[in-house]
Amino acid sequence: MSFGFFRKLTKPAPAPVQERDHVVAGRTLPLRIVENDRARRLTLRIDAGGRGLRITVPPGLRQGEVDRFLDRHQGWLEQRLAKVPDRPQVRPGIKIPIRGTPHLIVHEGGTRGTVRQSQDESGPTLVVHGDRTHLARRVADFLKREAKRDIEAMVAKHCEAAGRRAKAIRFRDTSSRWGSCTSDGTLSFSWRIMMAPAPVINYLVAHEVAHLREMNHGPKFWKLCEELCPDTERCKAWLKRNGGALQAIQFE
């Protein structure tokens, strides 16, 4: 005799993901093909900054269908990618914003591995010491340290105002979103946000902290978000308008 009521419950397996390259107008981009049980049709998305492509497909779809879908939308991809900002490589002589203010990158030898903000006759500078081949990585590490210092303080301030506590704070280089909040209270942020103006950084932190109380984007969420950051609408619009350019900067 068996009792179906007592069958062991198992978690569903994660959706299968395929990864490959796809060429668009001479550009080779990473392509992720993700199965979704709820998908009824294929959907195509360009990652922020034109850094990659993602197709969501119904389960069991044949590879040939994906290829034909890509062929049909090749013109659309070319048009959209033509509007994506250039992908400047971090190197001496270019400017990158820090908290919204453009800084000229200057390389100087010696003083192993240090990075400092300075000012000269041309305006704000970011002086990077050490081996030239490690310059881009050192600039990225500088932004990560700045993000950790500033954002952890902002999280503490907004959590106190919201009456919630974050379980952990993490920093990543994500191409699809600027921040996230998990159901267990873990907050994640893209360290690239340190290139945005200070009010926009504050808005992003307020947005994710608001999710600690409201795990949705309903009216209660936006009301709380505006209580934490009265500049919510203006900052949200700035990030939507300029975020792609920040995501496009290459630190590799």
UniProtKB/TrEMBL annotation:
Lineage: Bacteria, Pseudomonadati, Pseudomonadota, Alphaproteobacteria, Hyphomicrobiales
InterPro entries: UTP_pyrophosphatase-like, YgjP-like_metallopeptidase
Domain YgjP-like metallopeptidase: 40-242
Designated name of the protein: YgjP-like metallopeptidase domain-containing protein
Domain of life from the UniProt record: Bacteria
Species of origin: Aminobacter niigataensis
Gene3D superfamilies cross-referenced by the UniProt entry: Metalloproteases ('zincins'), catalytic domain
Pfam families membership: YgjP-like
